[in-house]
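Q: Entry one of two.
A:
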Amino acid sequence: MSDVTEGPAASSTPATPHPLYADTRYDDDRGDSWVMFAGVMLALVGILNIVYGIAAIDQSTLFTANATYVLTDLKTWGWVLLLVGAVQFLGAFAIWGGSEWGRWIGIGSAGANAIVQMFFIPALPLLSVTLFAVDVLVIYGLITYGGRRRSAA
């Protein structure tokens, strides 16, 4: 007969608990990269919207001359883009500061920008769809991980 016992009882170290039953302590660092990404993308998209808003207000040849916009003319959409871009750019600094209101400004302005970009598809289709996708990622990062700094404190 063998003196060696086999199976879980043979181990002298305690078994690792199942992931579903593991200790659910909060990890402060989890999601910080998403929040940083959301802030950086919001700042970049805000700068782009400011530039494109100024170009639209100026009736620049950057935009297609014969594109039909759903609600109004190009100059009005330029002002909308300029306003959304300024809010996004300022919201990025609030997100980096960890404020709750900055998170909600980021979510709201990214949502507004996603809607505005859908109206610009006739003029700049690839850019509009790309910025829409970035806005969706920003919204995901801020909703999922944006409020964790405050709740952990």
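Q: Entry two of two.
A:
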Amino acid sequence: MDQLHPMAPHHLPFYVAKPGETDVWMIVMAVFLILTVLAVGNLYLHLHSLPERMAHKSQKLQFEVVAVLGLLALFTHIHLFWIAALLLALIDLPDFGTPLRSIAGSVEKIADSAGDGTGNTEIADEVAPLPENIEPAAPSIPKKEVRGHA
């Protein structure tokens, strides 16, 4: 079977396999194609998870929202979700929870100190009476001007 077909040229290029031999270049290209597909897929997933990794590194409160937006973008192929996740990962949302918890704790302490110590927060009638020579001020009502018709 070493003979070539009579219509074939006498000198074949090196990349053409002879009959019955293994096509080495096809195997090399198949391995190259598989590695390229895996590398491009890995790059795509690495780029796709960028907002989630950014939010995770900075310990942001909105990490869960960024992760959900990233998954939605991955499975729906709607790139707007990925852009929203990236913007949300870049923005620092103010922490409203910590000051509000501090205010609530302070108000609770004030309410406990105003009570009798047993947790009863009713305000005691310890308002000092007005001196006898001072009378409570009457509310002043401004008088309206009435204009007559001429």
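A: Comment on entry two: Residues 115 and 124 are 8 Å apart (CA to CA). The chain is about 50% helix and 0% strand.
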